[in-house]
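Section 5: illustrative case.
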């Protein structure tokens, strides 16, 4: 007999989390895209929070909307992270981080930045002003490529078993045989 009580499937937000945590390949990609977006959002928000702190310390903080930079950095970080993850998923074709080349990841990041810049171009053209478009096409591809290469480097370092702390799954190689 099974002593575990049966429960009904979750509904609402619980169903969304269960769906995201599923192991089906397309859901793993969705989870990776959202995770990369959230990671880039945290980093973008952190960078702009530091810049806002520096501006406040030097007396150059905007009076009207002092936290706009932090919010914008977080939103743009999420957008860059998700567009990078989507382009990497398409360009990587299911390869692991160990098998991806740095130029391919940099290209995926740059393409993600170009996709965002195209969105800015379309929105600016709709409003009748091309303000900010040259900057977007300059900086967003560079930020995407740089963030992509940094993500690849971090992922490769965390995947190496000889780097970092011992996780308890295998005893460390001490050179001494047991038995």
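Designed sequence:
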């Amino acid at each position: 007999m099974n002593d575990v009580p049966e429960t009904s499937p979750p509904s609402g937000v619980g169903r969304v989390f269960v769906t995201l945590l599923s192991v089906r390949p397309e859901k793993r990609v969705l989870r990776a895209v959202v995770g990369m977006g959230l990671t880039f959002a945290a980093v973008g928000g952190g960078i702009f929070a530091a810049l806002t702190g520096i501006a406040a310390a030097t007396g150059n903080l905007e009076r009207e909307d002092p936290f706009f930079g932090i919010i914008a950095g977080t939103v743009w970080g999420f957008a860059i992270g998700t567009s990078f993850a989507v382009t990497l998923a398409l360009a990587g074709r299911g390869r692991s981080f160990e098998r991806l080349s740095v130029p391919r990841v940099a290209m995926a990041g740059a393409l993600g930045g170009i996709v965002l810049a195209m969105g800015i171009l379309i929105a600016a053209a709709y409003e009748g002003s091309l303000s900010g478009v040259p900057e977007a096409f300059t900086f967003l591809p560079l930020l995407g490529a740089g963030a992509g290469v940094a993500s690849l480097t971090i992922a490769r370092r965390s995947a190496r078993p000889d780097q970092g702390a011992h996780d308890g799954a295998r005893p460390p190689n001490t050179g001494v045989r047991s038995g």
